Amino acid sequence: MSVPASKPARLANSTRPVLLAGALVSVAVGLAGCKSEGAEYKAPPPQPVRAAAVTLSTATETRSYTGTIKPRYESDLGFRVSGKIVERFINIGDKVTPGMTLATLDATDYRLSLESADAELKAAESSRAQTDADEKRFARLTKEGWVSAASYDQKKAAADEARGRVERALRSLSLAKNQLDYTSLRATEAGIVTALPVEVGQVVNAGQFIARVARLDELEAVVSIPESRIDSDRSAVPSVTLWAAPDLAYEAKLREVSPQADPATRTYQARYSILKPNDGIGLGKTATVHLAQMGNGAQAKLPLAAVFKDEGQPSVWLIDETHGRLIKKGVEVGAWTETSAIVTSGLESGQKIVATGAHKLDAAIPVRIIEVVQ
């Protein structure tokens, strides 16, 4: 009776491999179905890119030097006599006109000298009148034989001395007037006060520096040029821009180059005259002198991010707008700047290239232009 009881158990164990095989077949069928669905190819969407149009222009080499705006003419003014400053009518930054009084000295002593010279002139004129009369009278008496010729000669000599004394007195009076006038310091040219090292109450000497006036009609950009470039930059075409207004360029002309280099920096100071200055150019402003040197051939200025290296060769992505695809193109780069690459060959005017992110693109994926940058 024990045998029939064990037989169903053996049958149950024998069905397990069959069930396991059925499950494996189901999984395989499911995987096969997934594989067949993934086999359907879908084209990737076009890559959005920013493009730049290639523009070829005459090759130029431009160098830039930073400097400051300075006047061509700047005068240090001072009194022509010594004395104590009693008034000052200007401050630094004030504009002056020709003949404008800038400061005055105490004129008491010079006024007394003028009065003394005037009194001396009057005395000399009185003496001259007396001696002239004596000379004329003795000349008549000598002619009539009443006095000797020696007496006449004495009167004539006295008259000549009196006339000379009058001349000296006139010059002394003129000098005294000038000295009194020199107690007022006046501007000789229109300009702006850039330095004023004295104060009221200060005693100054004749010729001492009192005020510096810069003329505004002729302004210059002063820069320092390395000695390795000074010869080639002499023939370059200059222009000047200001940091305060970088979009406005001024025509310039090289006026002067220092004959010797600075011993510390080994640079030569160059002064470029601004041909048509306006009120926006202020003294001391930071200026940049751009020197353009004409070259040979044509070149294109591309954004720096548009150029990548393919096996060491500078390359760009040309955009085939008709088919919406990319074409890799090798180029020659003549110069690199902080923001751009100067391409000297490999491109034609009018072509469009990828402007940014060139190193991330795949030629197998189509593209579409979303923006054309300048």
Question: Describe it for me?
Answer:
The chain is an alpha+beta fold and 374 residues long. It has three domains: 92 residues, Beta Barrel (conserved putative lor/sdh protein from methanococcus maripaludis s2 fold); 89 residues, Elongation Factor Tu (Ef-tu), domain 3, CATH 2.40.30.170; 118 residues. It is built from five helices and 22 strands. Helix 3 packs antiparallel against helix 4. The N terminus is likely disordered.
Topology:
Elements: H1 2-14, H2 16-38, E1 47-53, E2 56-71, E3 74-77, E4 83-88, E5 95-96, E6 101-105, H3 108-144, H4 149-181, E7 184-186, E8 191-195, E9 203-204, E10 211-214, E11 219-226, H5 230-233, E12 237-242, E13 245-257, E14 267-274, E15 286-303, E16 308-310, E17 313-320, E18 325-330, E19 332-336, E20 340-345, E21 352-354, E22 367-373
Parallel strand pairs: 1-22
Antiparallel strand pairs: 1-21, 2-11, 2-15, 3-10, 4-6, 4-9, 5-8, 6-7, 8-10, 11-14, 12-13, 12-15, 13-14, 15-20, 16-17, 17-18, 19-20
Helix pairs in contact: 3-4
Features:
374 residues, alpha+beta, conserved putative lor/sdh protein from methanococcus maripaludis s2 fold, Elongation Factor Tu (Ef-tu), domain 3, 6-stranded antiparallel β-barrel, 4-stranded antiparallel sheet, rod-shaped, disordered N terminus
